[in-house]
Design brief:
336 residues, globular, 21% strand, binds 2,5-anhydro-1,6-di-O-phosphono-D-glucitol, eight-stranded mixed sheet, 9 helices, five-stranded mixed sheet, alpha+beta, 30% helix, Fructose-1,6-Bisphosphatase, Chain A, domain 1, binds manganese (II) ion
Length: 336
């Protein structure tokens, strides 16, 4: 029997009816993310040529200014998402405030807001290591046809209608959820098509990988320090393996497939952790829960945190369920 190859485009349409609002607009929105991902992928793949074809700040051969890749990715996602009449506002790591789209036109029925980290792991670009894009989608809470407002963006993660990421790795993959499991699609770069390669992705309940920037160890709460020591102890399945890429998307992707935990705790230098709640932690937390994993700040479920500002940071502990619960147990016992 030959397996039917399903493309991302086909999958989005075929699964449209399982989505509770099912108007076709979300499908169209996901399709524009798919398109922008391909364009950004093409540029990411050329990153190593920057010294040859011109550095950032230079003018390239077509007379266009070379842009930093995170700015380029930001522009491409915003342009692509703006073109279709679906999104009324975008918040991005690269923009101080949210971008409103045509939302003052009373005939405008755009319902969705998108929050995005256009290029995650940007310190890895120059050294040819995987980077990613993270996105989170909500329905606006204010009426359509009125100007989009900050409160449309400051929704709890549990209100997300879809979320996902693109990982520009040895292969480029797009992984997303609409609240009905997690599916992963791999890009065939020769023809520019994403194919379903990882259906129904799930975290193993237990894992043996821990991912944390141990350079910050001295700074961590006592509960986290004790947990790291626990990972290193020799007993049963332990010691665990330490793996840290420094691109949340890539670290999360590996841990979801193999079983593991990612930690970015708070410390005295980062009193609320480093990662941003709205466009890094919440979308990854939604994917984690949809894949039978778990996500919290060590005490509170990530998606229950009430957002107060666009670029808010939170401590982030995410991964295989039993591992995250173990961290929570250590936090209860040893706390700060
Ligand atoms: P970004 O490139 O979007 O600013 O995100 C970087 C984030 C995340 O991807 C990564 O896991 C973490 O920062 C790494 O931080 P440290 O270098 O402090 O470990
Ligand atoms: Mn990031
Ligand atoms: Mn970024």
């Amino acid at each position: 029997m030959t397996l039917k190859k399903q493309t991302l485009g086909e999958f989005i349409i075929e699964n449209q009816t399982s989505f509770k609002y099912s108007s076709g607009e979300l499908s169209s929105l996901l399709n524009s993310i798919r398109l922008a991902a391909k364009v950004v992928n093409h540029e990411v793949n050329k990153a190593g040529l920057v010294d040859i074809i011109g550095a950032v700040g230079d003018t390239n051969i077509q007379g266009e200014d070379q842009q930093k890749l995170d700015v380029y990715a930001n522009d491409k996602f915003i342009q692509t998402l703006t073109r279709r009449n679906i999104v009324c506002g975008i918040a991005s790591e690269e923009e101080d405030s949210f971008v409103a789209i045509n939302s003052i036109d009373e005939n405008n029925q755009n319902k969705y807001v998108v929050l995005i980290d256009p290029l995650d792991g940007s310190s890895n670009i120059d050294v040819n290591v995987s980077v990613g894009t993270i996105f989170s989608i909500y329905r606006r809470v204010t009426p359509t046809g009125t100007p989009v407002q900050l409160k449309d963006f400051l929704q709890k993660g549990s209100e997300q209608v879809a979320a996902g990421y693109v990982v520009y790795g040895t292969s480029t993959m797009l992984v997303y959820t609409t609240g009905d499991g997690v599916n992963g699609f791999t890009l065939n770069p020769a023809i520019g098509t994403f194919y379903l390669s990882h259906a129904n992705m799930t975290f193993p309940e237990n894992g043996n990988i821990y991912s944390v920037n141990e350079g910050n160890y001295q700074d961590f709460p006592l509960g986290i320090k004790k947990y790291i020591k626990y990972c290193q102890e020799e007993e049963g399945e332990r010691p665990y393996t330490s793996r840290y890429i420094g691109s949340l998307v890539s670290d999360f992707h590996r841990n979801m497939i193999k079983g593991g935990i990612y930690l970015y705790p708070k410390g005295s230098r980062n009193p609320n952790g480093k990662l941003r709640l709205l466009y890094e932690c919440n979308p990854i937390a939604f994917l984690a829960e949809q894949a039978n994993g778990k996500s919290s700040d060590g005490v509170t479920r990530t998606m229950d945190v009430e957002p107060t500002e666009l670029h808010q940071r939170v401590p982030f502990i995410c991964g295989s369920k039993n591992m995250v619960e173990k961290v929570e147990e250590f936090m209860r016992k040893f706390g700060e």
